[in-house]
């Protein structure tokens, strides 16, 4: 049974992809506006968007990848065949 502390965090799981999509859409709009202003402004805007959008969006994805990797390795620690563990 999940703890009471974890239940509110699980409610955020469906909201996270929607929030990431909204932030990405706003980044595309901002990049298009800076591209219309010129090439130098587009590069400057892209550099700023990397830190403002890409890093916060990648943090939950990296946490999900780490969880998935830990889940895959969980059975590698002890064999399930009944052998003695030294």
Can you give keywords for this protein?
86 residues, mainly alpha, 3 helices
Give the secondary structure arrangement, pairings included:
Blueprint: H1 6-11, H2 15-37, H3 39-73
Helix pairs in contact: 2-3
Class per helix and strand makeup: mainly alpha
Give the overall pLDDT as a whole number: 77
SS strand fraction: under 5%
Low-confidence stretches: none
Gross morphology is elongated
How does the major sheet shape up? none
Cα-atom radius of gyration: 21 Å
Q: Explain this structure to me?
A:
- The chain is an all-alpha fold and 86 residues long.
- The protein has a domain at 21-68.
- It has 3 helices and no strands.
- It has helices at residues 6-11, 15-37, 39-73.
- The radius of gyration is 21 Å and the shape is elongated.
- The two termini are 32 Å apart.
- The model has no long low-confidence stretch (mean pLDDT 77).
């Amino acid at each position: 049974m999940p703890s009471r502390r974890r239940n509110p965090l699980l409610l955020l799981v469906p909201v996270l992809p929607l929030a990431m999509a909204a932030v990405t859409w706003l980044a595309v709009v901002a990049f298009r506006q800076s591209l219309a202003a010129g090439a130098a402004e587009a590069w400057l805007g892209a550099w700023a968007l990397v830190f403002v959008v890409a890093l916060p969006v990648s943090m939950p994805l990296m946490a999900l990848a780490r969880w998935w990797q830990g889940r895959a390795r969980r059975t590698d620690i002890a064999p399930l065949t009944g052998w003695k563990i030294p």
